[in-house]
Amino acid sequence: MESDVSDTQDDVELVDTPPTRSGPLLLAAAAVVVIPVLIGFYFLRNTGSDTASIVGDSPASQSAGMGGDMGGSEADSAASLPDAAVVVGGDMGGSDDAAAVVVRTDGVGDFADIQATEIVIEPDSSGYGAVLRVVTSLDVACAVSYGPTAELGSIATDSDMAGGGHTDHHPVMVGLEGGQTYSYQVSAIGPDGALYQSDLMQFTYEPGAGAVEGPKPPADNVADMAKVIDVSSEYSDAFAGANAIDGDGSTEWSSAGDGDDAYIVLKFGEEMQVKGVGFRTREMSDGTSVTTSFTATIDGTVYGPFEAGPGLSIGLLDTVALVVRIDVETSTGGNTGAIEIEVYGQTAM
Asked: In terms of residue numbers, what domain contains 82?
């Protein structure tokens, strides 16, 4: 075969032979395309990510995925793993004989090398899950993969809109069940493309352990029966006004720096007997974007202001409404908005 190929090549006359520089140029172009792909591949592979379970899906769908057969055996899920620095609702610290079961791929650094603080997991103030807090010594993009077994299956990233890496990380893990023990692993990528990964660890989720207690809603939440017809602004499509009434604690509406001037308007298909409105403020890790009070306007009548803050805040009222406008009255400024806006009531009889 080799002699045939050689004879054929000898018989072919090259026309317009390319400059000798084409080899290096093609190699450079290949490097530009292939290297980012390889980096992304290793990052995703080693975080156990699954496009079907990336945060942004509804809590119900994530919970269902996490509760199903993830491909891990009971022996896998019962493997001895290090505990989080703070176990939600459990004992503080880890077991002396806990051992990591993950071997990092060549070229992936130890996340502990860039940790500036211990990893802390605590109930999220919105009441939708648990937030992982850690500070790194480098500006990195950070994510946490988690699930009920060592197979993980879900992933959460920071909600900060800094447009790049940072050091103060607080991804929110949603779709968690109280009393369930979850495995998790933290991964990060630096501006130089370096990859970092933690050992596989565990935490037990108890939503009542430090969760902010809010008032009891006066009626069912019917906000999902409405449509967003107006909004002061939207930071981007990923932070659209519709996120405020989708019932998903992993999404949120953010204005584009409206501060105290942020507002959103909901319209129902028919008149509703409204007993109250609820507000779950969004917030940034630097203390900005927190709504501290809000008002509700119905048929020209302004109700409130009602106090707001971490968790669910409720303003009680009793009126019939077709259109409900929610205004941020006071805030800490910045990209104010809401994780969820709730309207309590029923169809007007």
From this structure: 45-204
